[in-house]
Design a protein that fits this description.
- Its EC number is 2.2.1.9.
- InterPro entries: DHS-like_NAD/FAD-binding_dom, MenaQ_synth_MenD, MenD_middle, THDP-binding, Thiamin_PyroP_enz_TPP-bd_dom, TPP_enzyme_TPP-bd.
- By secondary structure, the protein is of the alpha/beta class.
- The protein folds into 3 domains: 170 residues, Thiamin diphosphate (ThDP)-binding fold, Pyr/PP domains (Rossmann fold), CATH 3.40.50.970; 160 residues, TPP-binding domain (Rossmann fold, 3-Layer(aba) Sandwich), CATH 3.40.50; 197 residues, Thiamin diphosphate (ThDP)-binding fold, Pyr/PP domains (Rossmann fold).
- Helices cover 40% and strands 16% of the residues.
- The protein is built from 22 helices and 18 strands.
- The strands form 3 sheets. Strands 2-1-3-4-6-5 form a 6-stranded parallel sheet, with helices on both faces.
- The longest helix is centred in the C-terminal third of the chain and has 21 residues.
- It is globular, with a radius of gyration of 26 Å.
- The chain starts with a helix and ends with a helix.
């Protein structure tokens, strides 16, 4: 009984502190060694627990919740390879700066490395991909405050500085079942550990004045906003751009393309414009001021690499070195929103109009008209995005798969006054766990649509189980080109003898059977009118609604190149394409 009392107080105080520190959701995968954590989470009134049978999918589901809500979510699993299945989602969380609390149950120390069943070495098993790691002490009498301190610190480490996952490896001896009838559990007379207080990093006024003078002396500036999670940045950065009189190249994950903020300086079609080597040469900027991570666009990356003799400034909240283009930037580690506000006050009020900004605006409008031109072609990825963006209801999440879908969103998702939150897993850019992450993002109650390819859909079909189990509505648009379409743009496509087997990888599956297995509706559309009608129907359905567009993989390269070519021709020579 002494062991059970120590175990129970240790775990109840640990879980209670997680809740007090702001953890509202815990995703549990069933197992024996994790019994103390799982049962305690289920008993706590301040935590909603979710049960997922597959640890790999469970971790991505939690990632989706944490990504959409920008709050830490905990995941719990038993010992052994269950923990190893968390690895892909933890890597993604690390690189995309998403707070996860990873709680892996373990054998006690005397059962490690002795051939005990379901025991692997779990110490530091996620390596550098966690912001903080602790091999927790075994539950003993008097260690409940230690458990609280570790829980509190786990939350702070996951959200302090650059957000990310933390890992607590928690060994338990048998018996494993807590006794919730004991006195002194949960909180009682003990005061929970208060949340840490943190301020925002401001720049020295002298440096602000120096930057203002430097930028004001140059007309051909560009602001670039990539994927970020900085609250309030959109309004601040558009105000700064207005005072400077410069364009804002807005990645689809920047949040700048959707919402009611000022969009006069927003350039959505910079990827299509910079596909042209001629325009890349002509559009040399005096400086580039970037917020957030590197944009999706490869054309932008090529453009940036051309100019080593310009000022290149990268603003990030905390110390980091996110510059894969190999240039020599000046890093500014300060709160991005406050940085914009500090700099804006140094300029005269009003919107500055410049020839440079006007040129970008005209090119952007020309490109937009051509990209949105009503399709005469059969079903294609580009206009699938156009019609989808028009159909999305106010207050939606649009979760986008990697490879071609995110690039088509970059090219074809234009500015809108609607509140649309575009999400994706761009930390490690993988195709695994996309379905599960999207379903996790839908937990908030926002209408959620997932756009992805057939290989990504196949890779995470079992993720649909959570949508069925918890009645989470989800619209899924599957672009089915029967394989890995993005490889058709790479040099490997010229190797006909091996291309289809090694890179094309057709899946040759009828997805309707899988969708029905999870209780969903499946619609395979063949015309644009069928597609638009299915999109409208999906928004009224309170379940899984899968819309499948069958696209020719052999035609889609020509479709994209024709679009980009028409933009180049129109901008350089005045043709309407």
């Amino acid at each position: 009984m002494e062991h059970v009392e120590s175990l129970t107080k240790y775990v109840t105080h640990f879980v209670d502190q997680l809740a007090y520190s702001g953890v509202d959701h815990v995703v549990v995968s069933p197992g024996s060694r994790s019994t103390p954590l799982a049962m305690t989470v289920a008993e706590h009134s301040g935590i909603r627990h979710w049960i997922h049978l597959d640890e790999r999918s469970a971790a991505f589901f939690a990632l989706g919740m944490a990504k959409e809500q920008q709050k830490p979510v905990a995941i719990v699993c038993t010992s052994g390879t269950a923990a190893a299945n968390y690895y892909p989602a933890i890597v993604e969380a690390y690189y995309s700066r998403v707070p996860l609390i990873v709680l892996t149950a373990d054998r006690p120390h005397e059962l490690r490395d002795v051939g005990a069943p379901q025991a692997i070495d779990q110490t530091h098993m996620f390596g550098q991909y966690v912001c903080w790691y602790q091999d927790m002490a075994l539950p003993e009498a008097g260690l409940h405050m230690y458990a609280r301190r570790q829980a509190a610190r786990a939350v702070e480490e996951s959200i302090g500085g650059n957000k990310g996952p933390v890992h607590l490896n928690m060994p338990f001896r048998e018996p494993l079942v807590p006794d919730f009838t004991l006195d002194g559990l949960w909180r009682g007379d003990i005061q929970p550990i208060p949340r840490a207080a943190a301020g925002k990093a401001l720049l020295d006024e002298k440096l602000v004045s120096e930057l203002q003078a430097r930028l004001a002396s140059k007309e051909r500036g560009v602001i670039v906003v990539g994927p970020h999670t900085d609250a309030g940045l959109n309004e601040s950065v558009t105000m700064l751009a207005s005072r400077l009189g410069v364009p804002v190249l807005a990645d689809p994950l920047s949040g700048l393309r959707a919402g009611e903020h000022d969009k006069r300086n927003i350039i959505e079609n910079y990827d299509a414009l910079l596909k042209s080597s001629t325009l890349r040469d002509q559009l040399k900027p005096d400086y580039i001021l970037r917020f957030g991570a590197m944009p999706v666009s490869k054309a932008y990356s090529k453009w940036v690499k051309k100019w080593n003799d310009i000022d290149h400034l990268i603003v990030d909240s905390y110390k980091s070195y996110r510059e894969p283009a190999g240039i020599q930037p000046r890093f500014i580690w300060a709160d991005p929103k406050l940085f914009c506000e500090q700099l804006t006050t140094e300029f005269s009020e009003g919107s500055l109009e410049t020839d440079w900004l006007e040129r970008w605006g005209k090119m952007n409008q020309t490109a937009k008209d051509l990209m949105l031109k009503k399709p005469e072609e059969p079903l294609n990825e580009g206009h699938a995005v156009v019609y989808l963006s028009q159909n999305l209801p106010e207050g939606s999440n649009l979760f986008v798969g990697n490879s071609m879908p995110i690039r088509d969103v970059d090219s074809f998702f234009m500015s809108t006054p609607k509140d649309i939150n575009i999400l994706t897993n761009r930390g490690a850019n993988g195709i695994d766990g996309v379905v599960s992450t999207a379903i996790g993002s839908a937990v908030s109650g926002r209408p959620t649509t997932l756009l992805l390819g057939d290989v990504s859909f196949f890779h995470d079909l079992n993720g649909l189980w959570m949508a069925r189990r918890y009645n989470i509505p989800l619209t899924v648009v599957v672009i089915n080109n029967n394989g890995g379409g993005i490889f058709s743009y790479l040099p490997q496509a010229n190797e006909a003898r091996n291309f289809e087997e090694l890179f094309g990888t057709p899946v040759d599956l009828d997805f309707s059977h899988s969708v029905r297995m999870f209780g969903g509706i499946h619609k395979k559309v063949e015309t644009w009118s069928d597609y638009q009608m299915s999109l409208e129907q999906s928004q009224q359905y309170q379940g899984i609604f899968v819309i499948e567009l069958v696209i020719s993989r052999t035609d889609h390269v020509d479709f994209h190149k024709a679009k980009w070519g028409s933009v180049e021709e129109a901008v350089l020579h005045g043709s309407d394409g």
